[in-house]
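Working notes for the structural subgroup meeting. M.R. asked for a predicted model of this chain before we commit to crystallization trials. I am recording the input and output together here so anyone reviewing the notebook later can reproduce the run.

Input as submitted:
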Amino acid sequence: MGTLLQDLSFGARILWKRPGFTLVAVITLALGIGANTAIFSVVNAVLLRPLPYHQSERIMAMWPDRPGSSYQGVSEAKFVFWRSHSQSFEGLSASKGVGSGINLSGGAESEFVTGVRVSADFFQVLGVNPFIGRAFTPEEDSPAGKNVVILSHGLWRQHFAGDPSIAGKLASLNGDNYVIVGVLPEDFQYGSSADIFLPLRTNPASRNEGHNYTVLGRLKASVTKAQAQSEMQVIFGQFKEAEPKMLWQGEQGIRVEPYLASLTTNVQPLLLLLLGAVSFVLLIACANVANLQLTNSAARRKEMAIRSAMGASSARIVRQLLTESVLLALAGGGAGVLLAGWGVKVLTTLMPEGLMPRTAEIGFDWGVLSFAIAIAIGTGILFGLAPAIQTARLDVNHVLKEAPGKGGSGARGRLRSVLVVSEVALAMVLLVGAMLLLRTFANLRQVDPGFEPRNVLTFEVAPNGAQYDTTAKQADYFRRSLEQIRSLPGVEAAAVTSNLPLGAWLNLGVGLPGKPNSMRSTEIRMITADYFNVMKMTIRQGRGFAENDDSSGSPVIVVNEAYARQVFSDVDPIGQALTVEGKKTYQVIGVVNNVKQFGLGDPAPATVFIPVAQLDDDVMRVARQFVTMKFAIRATNNPLSLSAAVRDQMRRVDATLPVAKVRTLEQVVAHSLSSDRFNLTVLGLFATIGLALAAVGIYGVISYTAAQRTQEIGIRVALGASKGQVLKLIIGQGMALAVAGVGIGLVGALLLTRAMTNFLFGVRPTDPLTFVSVATFLILIALLACYVPARKATRIDPMTALRWE
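Returned structure, recorded in token form:
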């Protein structure tokens, strides 16, 4: 221990005496370690840290197993069957979001809140006890159960002022009174952190085939995941035998996965991509600092030779140099942690809503700090080991006789060259990845969404409760609201829809009358007459809706081009009949252009449009479980300037229905690109850092090499070499390394960018234009990095150079 302290003390003095070297190395390491720590904090929070539930490793998620599908929804009937037949779980629970939204009254102004419906044993499965009150009872979870509600901790504090005696009091939800039976703990999180929880009220005799439940189970203490999976496969066979028509096409079983794994399935590839990219940045930083260490050790050759002559073993010298390297790395790690703290804030700010689960948990803990310390120590050993071993292998007699200022060797020069080539190759891979994402983003921006987003204001309302329990009541509310909005100056047109483009989806069964086998799940939009005008969509055939269609009594429907091609490919769609959920028959009066719904990079789905006022009451009630209603207002100028006036008009129509999510349609489009923008920004930042470090590495090596060849260059100039020849000599050496690095990087990029296929649109991972342009750009940067020291070398005075030793 005394020797170690002595090494640390000596190493600290050495670093202090070389402030320039130390500062550059610490900054370089801080960039690499800080970037890795920031990304690891996200990976740790999302993928590695256990879920915040009691014995969370025993919580399993279950869903129908279909090859090629990642959808995890479960139907009501399947959940009922699974729960009644399974023996591997202490409890099996289900939940589903209240997509139609909830209006909470009772305060100074009504408030729009989000909700989740959960089965009675939901909180037991998660291992969570309410902070105040109790969980739901089986009686409350039955179809005839009483109106009860459990509040989130945040809503309890904000809307109910943290009333400690809240249990047993009433809350007005959608105009109906609900008894508050509990308040959840402050640290409770589930999904997107809903404001309220309601009983699921599963119907044991349900024939509903909509797969809208999320099913979770807590394994019994003596049961393994494999045993549960085996039992659920048997239960699948039993359900298949009992209800063969209620299985999805291609359904092969029941998937059982740890709840954490089910949450992170979709985001795991992105996190691994970012972690791989940031690891490349760290390797480039290590190569840079290793080159600095080689330069530093060259200047200390005499010192190490004297140590060896006085009896120091090679292992002792290596240990001393590695101690200095680790000390330097720890200093860089400390600065990196500070940089990572800022980086985490930037990452969470840039991260679009809904991109990753558990974003509220992203931050620093002992796991992240331990990672930072470990990576600092590992980095110190990585970049210090090769220079230390080379220094320990010095020929003592040769070095002691060596003239002052000489410190180069063939082995050191080769190692520097290898490090620079490695830096360029790694930077090449990062730049190719960033360029592919840049081209993807540019391609997405060029996609025609099928509508005109400029100058359109949107917002949501949730006309729920007994006051709006029929289609006629809702249609009347929309009519009165639109009349008020259209009376405002600056409003060109206004309409209502169940779904905006590039947002949530709504599927209902649509088919041909009298042909049950033709019924298929289809995107459906409930709209008012002026919707196509507001969105500036194009009628390709027939006509759109008119105001008198609502009162004409003849049900009409408009389909998009994708639906027309899918269903009416061999007949004229105009005049054809369609039925929705087997309730009412509609006549097709028009075909409208396709509109992007799931994303700009996804094909437009087959969609049908129905006037709100013509929807069957039962179908309306089903549809309104999943969506809020959206208003779209086309303005003559800045749409956001209408926000306050629109709110006032909506309050005049019904003050109990709050207006939510006021934003422009351009913001909706921008949000659909937010994940691609995030990927591009983060990977682009890493590529920029890698490029800068690689350029600095080339510059440093060429500068050092030119300095070592000062006498040679002086002799060449004295013998008549021109500045151009000297320039060519120095630049040629550097460019040979750069071209080698680019070549190796091209091969690496060809292999590694295939992992990015799912993140790309309109460009292949092996796109030749991307590879050529990146290689050209990197060579130009390398040329600039070589030119500066080469230019300096041309100014060497031959007389000074000849006296250099």
